[in-house]
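Q: Two folds, back to back.
A: First:
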Amino acid sequence: MEDCIFCKIANKKIPTEPVYEDENTIAFNDLNPQAPVHVLVIPKKHYASLNELDDEKTMAALLKAVKEVARKLGITDYRTVINTGKEAGQEVFHIHFHVLAGRPLKWPPG
């Protein structure tokens, strides 16, 4: 998708320092972190939200990437969040996982 900022990052049109990358995913630090560790994990292929993601290979790749980010950063306690839809807090309509760590995370999240 041409105007999607995450597609531009995935396609290297906007430079970023990847925390993790493989053939299907890329992970990078959030520009507006909500915790000391706040990494976004995205598929390189565009899916607007979890509601549109129907590819099991991509689903597995995203979960593997989350685990690899945690391993690479040396974190064992972390929260993974997927916001789906505007009312749930999704701001960029390209599915992404938030990986949050480095401070106590309360429940419910708000």
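A: Second:
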Amino acid sequence: MSSMMFVGGEKGMIPAEIDLAPPKDGQAFVRLLAAAFNKRDYWITQGKYPGVKLPLVLGSDGAGMIDQREVIINPSIGWGDDPNYFADDFKILGLPDFGTFSDMIIVPEENIYDKPGHLSWIEAAALPVCGVTAYRAMMTRGRAKKGERMLITGIGGGVATMALLFGVAMDMEVWVTSSSEEKIQKAKDHGAMGGVNYKAEGWDKALVSQAGGRFDLIIDGAGGKGFAKMVHHMNPRGRIVIYGGTAGNIDDLSPQRIFWKQLDIMGSTMGSPEDFQNMLDFVVKHKIKPIISHVFNLYEANEAMAVMASGDQFGKVCLDIPWE
């Protein structure tokens, strides 16, 4: 059976025939029909993750069939029994285990869920990583509430766009930042109240002025030098949840602004099985569909990776997996 195998260097990913061993007890074969990219896949190709051993099939997001059952895969493998933190042997599908850029995959049966019926195969494949990450960051960690003012930084990626959809669905007042005016407009088209370009001088004050007040919840995937400015513009008892650090280390963070306002600053990674099920229930209840930016054929995976590298996407970059 053919898989997209990561071989590293300038060759990127190439088609390869890989023989999969029969599933062990508690495992199942999934015939994959769609997969999706995450920034993690790109960072792995750039050597940013330890423990990479070749050959390696990338991909954490996928949806497909087990016999006649339509399924979606929870990519959080071995979370463990503690809903507050994952176990020592926790891993994410796609490293070190073979991932979803393939036509078949073996996964633990406990990680298989019914595909939401209102989603296409591409939409279902786009959901797992960004859906569970956004849900845990917003709901489990961030304690998001209807009517609150929420800021999502760096709108455009899968987690950020899914947080936007979740916030709109629960009648939050959602604001965004981006370096792209086009992405800010797209966010508004999907229900955001507005946004500002974080590269502009005084962007933080302009955002608060535009929003008509400070923020109750911030979902941040960047960190970096802009983080300290956001702390200044939080309401008392506000929460900031960090799920990524694309802008690097945080500088000039004032502890006085944190303790005086009694702010909560939290980290969040992926999600527990309960988070994943609750996310699916929320998506089904509100008939939410992930925002799809680009769709490629499985054998165009390198072209898809180039889009991820550029950062030009708004929503998820997906792979259609053909079957003859």
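Q: And?
A: The chain has two domains: 2-127+290-320, 132-267.
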